[in-house]
């Protein structure tokens, strides 16, 4: 089965769909968001993704009054969430900027009002963050949009994934294998789960959402058949914010996209053949002709 996002078709042997996750790495700054969109476009990514919250709904109760040191001073976690959240004007600006840069754009809504907000902006798809996989009301709202949904599966059991798919349906879903540690160590990648998900949910395309340092694990996911790869991006991993350390800097994203395209070419079609470049070595080295 294939799923279309914008002008791209995921699955069925089509090119890997590369998502540059800006998330909250814009730190509430529209100009920084635009710089990150530029990074994604220059690298050859297919899409940029953000996160959208209604802070008073999406912030867990036990976290709201927790004090946090920020570049804007000490504030509660809820105040911080309000501080970095983009509103309508900002999303119109960055959404238009992404589109004009040749990129699809969408976001992870963390609550039902955020689904409605993103729908009003005409996003091409929605992403379910791993933390939201068990939010039935959110999944129902996403199903009702009729849009493609990328479902991240970090911090989730197979049984929880089953329940989420029973709500979302399976006709417009891409499963994204993920491990929700930041940054993720190689021993927690468990890339063989890509095959496990593909076998269990036959027909649903399976991709990979990574939080590791470096490129190797994401590239291995492509070799194992991931139809999409999502990685956080940043201008500088030392910037303030919880996701920067597990993000790719501009050069890293460029190398990721380049190497994904090389791997796609190298995987071929599985048909054993003799290539033209082998004829001269064959004539020189093979002692007994067939």
UniProtKB/TrEMBL annotation:
One of its GO terms (molecular function) is N-acylneuraminate-9-phosphate synthase activity. InterPro entries: Aldolase_TIM, PseI-like, PseI/NeuA/B-like_N. Residues 36-272 form the PseI/NeuA/B-like domain. Pfam families: NeuB (PF03102). Gene3D superfamilies: Aldolase class I. It comes from the Bacteria. GO terms for biological process: carbohydrate biosynthetic process. This is N-acetylneuraminate synthase. It comes from Microbacterium saccharophilum.
């Amino acid at each position: 089965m294939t799923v279309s996002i914008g002008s791209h078709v995921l699955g069925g042997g089509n090119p890997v769909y590369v998502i540059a996750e800006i998330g909250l790495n814009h730190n509430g700054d529209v100009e920084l968001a635009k710089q990150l969109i530029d990074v994604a476009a220059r690298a050859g990514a297919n899409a940029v993704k953000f996160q959208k919250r209604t802070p008073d709904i999406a912030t867990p109760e036990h976290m709201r009054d927790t004090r946090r040191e920020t570049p804007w001073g000490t504030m509660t976690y809820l105040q911080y969430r309000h501080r970095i959240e983009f509103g309508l004007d900002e999303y119109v600006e960055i959404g238009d900027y992404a589109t004009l840069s040749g990129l699809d754009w969408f976001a992870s809504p963390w609550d039902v009002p955020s689904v409605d907000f993103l729908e009003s902006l005409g996003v091409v798809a929605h992403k379910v963050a791993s933390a939201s996989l068990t939010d039935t009301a959110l999944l129902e709202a996403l199903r009702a949009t009729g849009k493609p949904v990328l479902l991240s599966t970090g911090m989730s059991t197979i049984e929880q994934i089953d329940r989420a798919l029973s709500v979302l349906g399976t006709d417009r879903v891409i499963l994204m294998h993920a491990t929700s540690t930041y940054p993720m160590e190689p021993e927690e990648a468990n890339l063989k789960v890509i095959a496990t998900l593909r076998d269990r949910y036959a027909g649903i395309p399976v991709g990979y959402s990574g939080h590791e340092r470096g490129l190797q694990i994401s590239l291995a996911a492509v070799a194992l058949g991931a139809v999409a790869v999502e990685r956080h991006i940043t201008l500088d991993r030392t910037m303030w914010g919880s996701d920067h350390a597990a993000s790719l800097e501009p050069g890293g994203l460029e190398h990721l996209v380049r190497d994904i395209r090389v791997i796609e070419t190298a995987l071929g079609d599985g048909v054993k053949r003799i290539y033209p470049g082998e004829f001269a070595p064959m004539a020189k080295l093979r002692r007994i002709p067939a």
